[in-house]
Amino acid sequence: MSLAAVPTQFANDWHSLKEAGFTQIDAILPIPGTDHRAYFFSGSQYARIGFVPGTAGEDQIYGGVRSIAENWKSLAKAGFGHLDAALLVPNAQNQAYFFSGEKYCRVSFQEGSQDDDELLDGPKSISEGWPAIPFHSIDAIFPEPRTHINFYVFSGTKYAKIVIGEGGEQELITGPTDVAPDWPALHEAGIC
Length: 192
Description:
Elements: H1 10-13, H2 15-20, E1 27-30, E2 37-42, E3 45-50, E4 60-67, H3 68-71, H4 73-78, E5 85-88, E6 95-100, E7 103-108, E8 118-125, H5 126-129, E9 140-143, E10 150-155, E11 158-164, E12 170-178, H6 179-182, H7 184-188
Antiparallel strand pairs: 1-2, 2-3, 3-4, 5-6, 6-7, 7-8, 9-10, 10-11, 11-12
């Protein structure tokens, strides 16, 4: 794996993140039914951002920067003041898993709505609800582009690959293993 571009301060290319005052991104949740909008979470805040892949400066914030606790009642109910990772629930409509510290929860939501999110499950410990994941906390989780049922899970300098079945059951495919040998571009960029 190699980097398509050199690492840069994201605010140089993402004006919306600079406008939001985000100095780091903790989690990104794609918005179902859209190709180029996502929730970006930073600390105790989030923004809904539209973007055009491969372009600089064509991103914008929809609805302003908001407090997670005040606008995601489900996450507030779960006690999640900040997020470490987020993942759309495979084969489910408008549902997501959110990870914070050693806990996770499952939430239903509607884009742009402040009152339609609902805590469906959790908070629970990651080790209880995700037994295939060999980590107590998760820094990032994202789908393998070719399959959309296999997922890469990162924690510190380690990663694992899992498959998530239609009923939510998981199976460990590989790992845990060090990130550096298998993802040298991430290591060289100083990301992990």
